[in-house]
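Below is a filled-in request sheet from our internal design queue. Each sheet records the structural input a requester submitted and the sequence that came back. We keep these sheets so that new team members can see what a complete request looks like end to end.

REQUESTER: design group, bay 2
PRIORITY: normal
MODE: inverse folding
CHAIN LENGTH: 203
BACKBONE (tokenized):
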């Protein structure tokens, strides 16, 4: 199998149709993606646990250019028509440079999806040291992580960590040590963080 170079991440307000039937609503999108050169493995999408009005789509590509080739192709208008069925409001698409184990992170029982923005005045290199530690954490229940800075903004990063379940992650956070709490304080000092959980469907 080809290596994942970037992951397209789309954060969107879900339509009623998508909330009722995610797989069926996105089938046309998934079919086109699987017929597109550069897709690596599976397409992942699902509703946000903390707010089921929101959805997340992750598409692994060999490269940013592979996705751009689809955007510039004659099939893209057709894909957009299918995609509109799932969108109930705003959406944001980014691409992050993938480092880690994509299938283990996105194909787990639940995936912690964290979006980080380096705060003004903080060097990206300093933030990277902390983000690499986040991605390297291995505690019971974690199957893998994949992360990277976005192509669109070098001060924004996405980290996806696969957990056996949302409950296991929540329990891990409750039982965190003083050292872990101190590390979180370091993160909050240099990074703005938005974190949710998604039980991705794999297509």
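RETURNED SEQUENCE:
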């Amino acid at each position: 199998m080809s290596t994942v170079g970037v992951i397209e991440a789309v954060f969107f307000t879900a339509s009623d149709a998508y909330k009722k039937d995610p797989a069926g609503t996105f089938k046309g999108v998934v079919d086109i993606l699987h017929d597109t050169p550069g897709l690596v493995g599976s397409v992942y999408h699902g509703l946000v646990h903390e707010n089921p009005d929101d959805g997340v789509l992750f598409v692994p590509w060999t490269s940013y250019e592979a996705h751009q080739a689809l955007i510039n192709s004659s099939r893209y208008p057709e894909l957009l028509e299918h995609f509109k069925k799932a969108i109930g409001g705003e959406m944001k698409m980014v691409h992050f440079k993938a480092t880690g184990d994509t299938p283990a992170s996105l194909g787990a029982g639940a995936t912690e999806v964290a979006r980080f923005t380096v705060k003004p005045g903080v060097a990206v290199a300093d933030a990277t040291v902390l983000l690499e530690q986040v991605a390297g954490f291995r505690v019971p229940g974690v199957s893998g992580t994949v992360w990277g800075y976005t192509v669109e903004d070098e001060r924004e990063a996405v980290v996806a960590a696969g957990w056996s379940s949302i409950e296991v992650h929540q329990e891990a956070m409750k039982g965190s040590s003083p050292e872990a709490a101190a590390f979180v304080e370091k993160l909050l000092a240099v990074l703005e963080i938005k974190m949710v959980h998604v039980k991705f469907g794999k297509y």
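SHEET NOTES:
- The mean pLDDT is 94.
- The CA atoms of residues 132 and 189 lie 16 Å apart.
FILED BY: M.R.
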